[in-house]
């Protein structure tokens, strides 16, 4: 006898659903290239910018060859170009990392607000990946679990804000390049594991799982 969907996918990991490690690793390569180019060029922002853009183009080409979406590749390349232009304009190498710092501030705020308004972004993302749209919001247990697990993602962004902010203030270009690696896929992987644990920890033992949101009981007269 089948034990139902709960026994098959109730503990499906967020890492397997959302991935993220490869994308985070690719995104950390241009900042590392910037730091290496800046250092090797005798603190030259131009060399650092050229190295970052060149590596971003190579990474993008590899992603397209492997079946990646051209739109996503262009967005990633544009982000690196903008960061390079900011650093060249201000004349401060650390400003290459300013967009990343600001994006983490915005992400922390967005995830926190989503929890407060009961539209936790973790639920939105997982619901989109699973093709559920907003059906998960009809399940109070899932909404509560997604909300609590989303705080782990808020913490992830805040960690980056604190570390990047301190290094940016200290004008530490090489340290920022290293931090971009340490706080990219290792932190993403840790966030997926911890938020997944929190998510399933908050669900009732008899919950059918992420792929099967419980529907509220209907009330009313029957004929």
UniProtKB/TrEMBL annotation:
<dbReference type="InterPro" id="IPR016566">
    <property type="entry name" value="UCP010219"/>
</dbReference>
<feature type="transmembrane region" description="Helical">
    <location>
        <begin position="109"/>
        <end position="130"/>
    </location>
</feature>
<feature type="transmembrane region" description="Helical">
    <location>
        <begin position="182"/>
        <end position="203"/>
    </location>
</feature>
<keyword id="KW-1133">Transmembrane helix</keyword>
<keyword id="KW-0472">Membrane</keyword>
<feature type="transmembrane region" description="Helical">
    <location>
        <begin position="36"/>
        <end position="59"/>
    </location>
</feature>
<feature type="transmembrane region" description="Helical">
    <location>
        <begin position="71"/>
        <end position="89"/>
    </location>
</feature>
<dbReference type="Pfam" id="PF11361">
    <property type="entry name" value="DUF3159"/>
</dbReference>
<protein>
    <recommendedName>
        <fullName>DUF3159 domain-containing protein</fullName>
    </recommendedName>
</protein>
<keyword id="KW-0812">Transmembrane</keyword>
<feature type="transmembrane region" description="Helical">
    <location>
        <begin position="151"/>
        <end position="170"/>
    </location>
</feature>
């Amino acid at each position: 006898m089948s034990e139902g969907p709960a026994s098959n996918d109730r503990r499906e990991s967020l890492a397997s659903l959302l991935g993220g490690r490869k994308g985070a690793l690719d995104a950390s390569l241009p900042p590392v290239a910037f730091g290496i180019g800046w250092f090797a060029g005798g603190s030259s922002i131009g060399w650092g910018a050229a190295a970052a853009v060149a590596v971003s183009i190579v990474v993008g080409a590899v992603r397209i060859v492997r079946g990646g979406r051209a739109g996503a590749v262009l967005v990633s390349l544009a982000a690196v170009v903008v960061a390079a232009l900011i650093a060249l304009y201000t004349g401060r190498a650390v400003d290459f990392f300013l967009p990343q710092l600001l994006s983490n501030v915005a992400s922390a705020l967005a995830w926190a607000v989503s929890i407060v308004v009961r539209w936790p972004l973790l639920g939105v993302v997982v619901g989109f990946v699973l093709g559920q749209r907003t059906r998960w919001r009809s399940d109070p247990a899932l909404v509560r679990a997604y909300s609590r697990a989303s705080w782990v993602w808020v913490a992830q962004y805040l960690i980056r804000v604190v570390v990047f902010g301190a290094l940016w203030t200290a004008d530490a270009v090489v340290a920022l390049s290293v931090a971009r690696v340490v706080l990219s896929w290792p932190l993403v992987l840790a966030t997926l594991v911890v938020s997944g644990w929190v998510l399933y920890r908050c669900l009732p033992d008899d919950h059918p799982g992420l792929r099967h949101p419980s529907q509220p009981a209907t009330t009313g007269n029957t004929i």
